[in-house]
Structures are given as structure tokens and as C-alpha cells.
């Protein structure tokens, strides 16, 4: 294990009852000082991962390590972890100061030390001078900051944030995204953030884990995941995508819409059925003769920065294009794209399966 690793999941499975597991052999590593996001649809297991890290529940199988030690049955209050909940879980009958001081009083810290620490935590979240305010007198964004101050005052090594922005309106939510990211940089504490909002995840994270049905589908930086989605679920969940069925012809050549195209993906067998993803911004409109694909323009919307153009090819596949050029509705045009724009995905493959396939491919190609 790398020295910078703070949390490690080793084949963690969580089953609440006899049915299918909520988490199914999940393995990952969290490094110190980074901003991580767990992203996925409702019910995919995001909160379950946070609760396992916090120590509110134990894994059914597998190990959770913290700084190299197995902590499966270490109680929550003995872990260097604090959680910021979706509804903030502040005490309505205590003022701002006492809400933040609560954990320190339980630890029986000296009064002068408590005052100094609470002041510092409130300064970090820009709430100096609000000490005697009641929680009911604070706005949604301010309550959010009190909840964060309460988490950081304990000086945890990791802060877990369970959809902390979901109760805020869009403008405040965007402001808080910047604020949280900035705060994490200044504190240098590891943040693990849960959201089902892909734009939020792309904007805030050093690393994203995309989850579906209790499995990590893909992990990586926002650009890795956006540029190289590993399967249809990820491609669909993150950003807009054109996805069509195809099959491999040979390495570096793939067939879809009845035509063959050069591509850069490798390690798949000839004739293997695949799915093709091309992002709308990787398609450029041109004349029918110059295009690699011939399509008819069905509709067009002006989106400010670009036109969103919807086209259909002869086989009836829809192609969404984001272009700064304008098209003519009803016109026969061509779509041009580079080989790198074609992402070839094996049906339903997860990251783990993808890594194994590439390893096997590398071994074979080195042996040759
Ligand atoms: N205590 C429990 N007992 C039984 N099933 C549970 C329990 N807690 C969660 N589940 C189930 O586990 C699955 C994953 O729940 P989890 O809360 O981790 O999902 P999530 O990705 O955080 O979803 P959301 O975005 O809706 O909060 C769901 O199907 C949920 O119904």
C-alpha cells in the first residue's frame, strides 16, 4: 500500500438482508489530501460506502483499512472521520458556537481551548462574528457552513459529505461548490463527497468513482472519465453521448452503421459486438461528400456557445452534434470525426474487467 493511501477497501461486500448485496466486492484506495466524489444514481450504494467508512455499519465481507490498519469493527467515535449530513443535523436549540463546540465539550476539552478552536473553525468557513446566532436565524448556505465547521473543529483526517448541497437552490449550490473546493484545498484534509449530480462531480473532484448497482463502474479524474467512458452506463451518466451498436473488424478497425472506421481502441476480438460512443462536441458538420457519416438534419437549437444539431443516419440512428457552425434543417450533410473520437466499449464491462483485458492484451502483444 502506498504511503499516501489513507483508506483502502478490499473486496468489501455489504448485504443488509438475504437479497442481492448493496455493495458487491468493492475495492478502491483513497489518497491523503484529495477531493473524491462518489457518483451514481439513487440506490447505487454511495451512502452505504460513507457509512462503512464512518463506522455506522460493518462490512459483511472484505476489509476496510485506515492508514494501513483494518478498522472493520472500530466504533465510529474512535475513527479519525467526521460526517456532514444532507440535512446538516444541527442542534436547533443551540447557537452557532455551541453547535460547533459540541464534540469538543463531549471530549471534555478545556473551555479556553474550545473557544480558540471554535473561533478558528468559524473563521475557516467565513462565519466569524456569528457565534451567538441561533440556527433558525441562519440561511441554508450558512447552516451548511456551520455543519462543516462542526466537522473540521475535530481535526479529522477525512471528512465525509453526504449530498450536502442538495437542499440549496441552484445559485447558492454553485457558490458552495467553489467554496467547498477552496476550503478543502486550504485545509488539505481528504474529502469524500457523495452526489448524484454529474456536473457537480466533474467540477469539484480530483477523482470520481462512478457507481452503479453496488459496483464501481469506473474511477479516475473528471477528464479521464469524461473522455474515456468505459461502458454505456458511464457514457450515458456523464455528459451527453451518441451511442450505437457495432462490432470489431480487427484491431484499430470497427464497424458501425454498416461502414468501417479507423479507431484507436485495442484488445477486442474480431467480430466481437461492441458499443460505440462519440461525444457531440467531437462531431463536426461538413458536406455530405467530405463527411465520414452521411446524415439528415432533423432539428437545431441555438445554445449560446454552440448549436445543438440533431441528425439521423440512413439506419435511423440519432446523432447529436455540438457545433459552432450552423446547419440547415432538412439538409443532407456529412459528419466528420477523428479516429480518437471513437470510444469502443465492450458490452457492460466494468473497470476491473477492462484492466484485466488490457493486461492480457499487453502480455500477448509483448510475447509476439
Ligand atoms: N438499513 C438498511 N436496510 C436495508 N436496506 C438498506 C438499508 N440502507 C440502505 N439500504 C438499501 O441499500 C441500497 C443502497 O442504498 P444507499 O443509501 O447506499 O444508496 P445511495 O446511492 O446513497 O442512494 P441515494 O442517492 O438515494 O441516497 C438501496 O437499495 C437501499 O434501499
TrEMBL record:
Coiled coil: none annotated. CDD domains: ABC_PotA_N (cd03300). The keyword Cell membrane applies. Gene3D superfamilies: 2.40.50.100, P-loop containing nucleotide triphosphate hydrolases. GO terms for molecular function: ABC-type putrescine transporter activity; ATP binding; ATP hydrolysis activity. It holds the Pfam family TOBE_2. Keywords: ATP-binding, Cell membrane, Membrane, Nucleotide-binding, Translocase, Transport. Residues 7-238 form the ABC transporter domain. It is an enzyme of class 7 (translocase). One of its GO terms (cellular component) is ATP-binding cassette (ABC) transporter complex. InterPro entries: AAA+_ATPase, ABC_SmlMolc_Importer, ABC_transporter-like_ATP-bd, ABC_transporter-like_CS, Mo/tungstate-bd_C_term_dom, P-loop_NTPase, PotA-like, PotA_ATP-bd. Its EC number is 7.6.2.11. It catalyses: ATP + H2O + polyamine-[polyamine-binding protein]Side 1 = ADP + phosphate + polyamineSide 2 + [polyamine-binding protein]Side 1. Part of the ABC transporter complex PotABCD involved in spermidine/putrescine import. Responsible for energy coupling to the transport system. The complex is composed of two ATP-binding proteins (PotA), two transmembrane proteins (PotB and PotC) and a solute-binding protein (PotD). Belongs to the ABC transporter superfamily. Spermidine/putrescine importer (TC 3.A.1.11.1) family. PANTHER family: SPERMIDINE/PUTRESCINE IMPORT ATP-BINDING PROTEIN POTA, SPERMIDINE_PUTRESCINE IMPORT ATP-BINDING PROTEIN POTA. This is Spermidine/putrescine import ATP-binding protein PotA. It comes from Priestia koreensis.
Amino acid at each position: 500500500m502506498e504511503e499516501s493511501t489513507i483508506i483502502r477497501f478490499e473486496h468489501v461486500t455489504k448485504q443488509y438482508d438475504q437479497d442481492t448485496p448493496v455493495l458487491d466486492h468493492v475495492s478502491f484506495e483513497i489518497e491523503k489530501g484529495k477531493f473524491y466524489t462518489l457518483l451514481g444514481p439513487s440506490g447505487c450504494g454511495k451512502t452505504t460506502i460513507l457509512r462503512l467508512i464512518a463506522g455506522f455499519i460493518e462490512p459483511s465481507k472484505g476489509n476496510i483499512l485506515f492508514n494501513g490498519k483494518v478498522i472493520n469493527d472500530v466504533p465510529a467515535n474512535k475513527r479519525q472521520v467526521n460526517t456532514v449530513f444532507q440535512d446538516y443535523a444541527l442542534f436547533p436549540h443551540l447557537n452557532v458556537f455551541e453547535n460547533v463546540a459540541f464534540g469538543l465539550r463531549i471530549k471534555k476539552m478545556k473551555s479556553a481551548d474550545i473557544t480558540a478552536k471554535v473561533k478558528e473553525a468559524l473563521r475557516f468557513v467565513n462565519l466569524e462574528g456569528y457565534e451567538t446566532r441561533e440556527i433558525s436565524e441562519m440561511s441554508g448556505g450558512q447552516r451548511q457552513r456551520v455543519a462543516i465547521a462542526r466537522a473540521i473543529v475535530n481535526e479529522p483526517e477525512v471528512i465525509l459529505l453526504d449530498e450536502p448541497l442538495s437542499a440549496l437552490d441552484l445559485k447558492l449550490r454553485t457558490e458552495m461548490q467553489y467554496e467547498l473546493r477552496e476550503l478543502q484545498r486550504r485545509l488539505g484534509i481528504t474529502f469524500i463527497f457523495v452526489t448524484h449530480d454529474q456536473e457537480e462531480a466533474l467540477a469539484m473532484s480530483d477523482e470520481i468513482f462512478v457507481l452503479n448497482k453496488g459496483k464501481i463502474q469506473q474511477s479516475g479524474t473528471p477528464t479521464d472519465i469524461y473522455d474515456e467512458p468505459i461502458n454505456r452506463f458511464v457514457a450515458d451518466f456523464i455528459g451527453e453521448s451518441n451511442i450505437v451498436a457495432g462490432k470489431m473488424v480487427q484491431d484499430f478497425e470497427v464497424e458501425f452503421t454498416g461502414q468501417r472506421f479507423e479507431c484507436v481502441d485495442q484488445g477486442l476480438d474480431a467480430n466481437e459486438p461492441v458499443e460505440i460512443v462519440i461525444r457531440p462536441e467531437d462531431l463536426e458538420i461538413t458536406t455530405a461528400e467530405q463527411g465520414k457519416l452521411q446524415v439528415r438534419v432533423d432539428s437545431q437549437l441555438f445554445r449560446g456557445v454552440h448549436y445543438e444539431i440533431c441528425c439521423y443516419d440512413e439506419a435511423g440512428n440519432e446523432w447529436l452534434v455540438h457545433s459552432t457552425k450552423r446547419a440547415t434543417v432538412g439538409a443532407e450533410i456529412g459528419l466528420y470525426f477523428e479516429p480518437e473520437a471513437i470510444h469502443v466499449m465492450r458490452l457492460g464491462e466494468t473497470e476491473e474487467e477492462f484492466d484485466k483485458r488490457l493486461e492480457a492484451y499487453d502480455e500477448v502483444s509483448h510475447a509476439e
